Amino acid sequence: MRRFATQPVGRTLCFGIGIVILIVARPAHGQSGVTPPKKSPEVINLEKFIKQIEVNQKQIQELIVSNTGKSELLSTELDGLKKLESQMSVSEESYPEVLRTLHSQRVQLLIDLAGIEARSGAIQQAIAQITDDQLENLINPLNKLVEIREAELDRLKSMVEQGVVSTSALREAEIAILEAKTRLAQAQSTSGGALGQLNSQLLATSLEKTEKSARLSKTSSLIKEVDEYRIHASKVSEKRGELRSLGSEIVNLKNELSDLAQTLVFQKAELRKLTSDDQ
Questions:
Q1: How many Cβ atoms are within 10 Å of 184's Cβ, its own excluded?
Q2: Which residue, among 119, 124, 205, has the nearest Cα to 132 in the 3D structure?
Q3: pLDDT tens-digit map of 3-36
Q4: What is the largest CA-CA distance in the chain?
Q5: pTM score, whole prediction
Q6: What angle do CA 274, 275, 277 make, to 5 degrees?
Q7: Is the dihedral of CA 214, 216, 219, 221 positive or negative?
Q8: In whole angstroms, what is the distance from residue 3 CA to residue 7 CA?
Q9: CB neighbours of 82 closer than 8 A, spacing ≥ 6?
Q10: Domains with residue ranges and CATH for the chain
């Protein structure tokens, strides 16, 4: 009896242990029951590399968009500068020669004006000298002589009325007055002729000075305009250089983006191959 009694107990104990083992081995609710394979270092590094490529792609795309916007703005600005350039009186090809010619003309006009100023001063000095000399040496003495002759005539008239002198003396006095007045008129005419010539020269000099001053003013204005064109042309050249540089940079960025895209395709394919081998 003892032997048969122990057999059921043994079987029951074994059955209970089996249940416990099954319960322990059974996965928790909601879990797949399959442990994911551990990634190899090579796979991890490749995934990091792929993520970095994608970051670089995004950055390059942003740079392309930014540079394209800058390029469009530069193109608009350059179009405006070219439009303004077309309204100027000189061109990119002609302005260096025009500027040299204008500067040469300006220098010549300054020299001419300096000569005109000197000539005008000399004429004015000559006019003043002639006037002073004529008055002091000829005109004033002749005026005095006429006054003396007229006073003598008045005195003789009084004496003729008194019967002191004859009328012939009166006629001689009248003739003397006429001679003095004739000499005075000749002296004034001579002085006036010389002064007239000098005054004519002074007027011509003044007109020439006015003309050359006007030409100098216009020449200076043109030089300023050409200088403004030079500055403008420099800006145009600068903007063209910036535009070319941006265009080259955009092309390089697009090429780099294309290379990254090819690299990304290759690396993703490599990643798929590695993960399939690990499984």
A1: 18
A2: 124
A3: 333 333 333 333 333 333 333 334 444 444 556 6
A4: 220
A5: 0.42
A6: 65
A7: negative
A8: 7
A9: 236
A10: 56-278 (1.10.287.2610)
Structure tokens at 21: 């083992």
CA 125/CA 121 separation, integer angstroms: 6
**For residues 133 and 140, what is the distance between their CA atoms, to the nearest angstrom?**
10
Structure-block tokens of residue 197: 């010539």
d(CA 74, CA 249): 14
Distance in Å from the first CA to the final CA of the chain: 58
Nearest 5°: phi and psi at 35?
-80, 125
Task: Yes or no: say if 83 and 255 are a contact pair by the CB < 8 Å rule.
Answer: no
* pLDDT tens by residue, 50-64: 899 999 999 999 999
pLDDT reading at 49 higher than 80: yes
Residues in the chain: 279
Question: What is the DSSP secondary structure assignment for residue 137, as one 8-state letter?
Answer: I
